[in-house]
From TrEMBL:
The lineage of its organism: Bacteria, Bacillati, Cyanobacteriota, Cyanophyceae, Pseudanabaenales. This is Class I SAM-dependent methyltransferase. PANTHER family: TRANS-ACONITATE 2-METHYLTRANSFERASE-RELATED (PTHR43861). GO terms for biological process: methylation. Keywords: Methyltransferase, Transferase. GO terms for molecular function: methyltransferase activity.
Amino acid sequence: MEPKNTAARYNRIAQWWQTEHQNSSYGITQLERAIKFTVNKGLAIDIGCGSSGRFIKVLSQQGFQTEGLDISVEMIDLAKHLHAEITFYIEDICTWIPQKLYSLISAWDSTFHLPLDKQEPAIEKLCNALEPNGVILFTCGGGHTNSVVSGTFQGQDFDYSTLGVDGFLRILIENHCTCRHLEYDQYPENHVYIIAQKIAPTS
Ligand SMILES: C[S@@+](CC[C@H](N)C(=O)[O-])C[C@H]1O[C@@H](n2cnc3c(N)ncnc32)[C@H](O)[C@@H]1O
């Protein structure tokens, strides 16, 4: 599914998402694990932040100067009401051109919606937007090879694609990131989260 179609579906459930997820702890332990690997608490960005800004809240509380990005106009409009002080971007991760380097990038349950051929360039882009020792946290479908599945969520049809964990690990390595943690956190669901860190040049 093209990102603009994913955005249209999330626009329809943006209000539901905010009500449902504002105080949700889903993924927060994993975010806190990622934060522990950071060396510098500079800039952070939450990719596919949704309308609740729940990751943004934790990152800000932990001392990061935090930004949010989402392709859904409705998601961002609602997030701005809760977090007026935060810089938000309405952008498709596939076409977004990062202008800064980040100490931490999170992409929780967002990049798994990208078309299969957009997965590698997107993860590569995020790796290249990390400062030395910067940390990335993202979720993906598991398994060992490419796959695309469809599902219905809150009455909306969505697609999910994955390169398999081996594919994502290859991209991380090729982009000078080392895997710090990889877990099937909802097993037997095929949901994986990965924490990786940009290798700092040795002086
Ligand atoms: C399942 S929600 C997760 C929201 C948030 N990360 C959370 O955990 O509360 C997926 C989010 O990713 C966003 N998204 C999907 N495709 C995107 C893309 N190509 N670029 C930017 N955001 C995208 C959606 O608009 C939606 O807000």
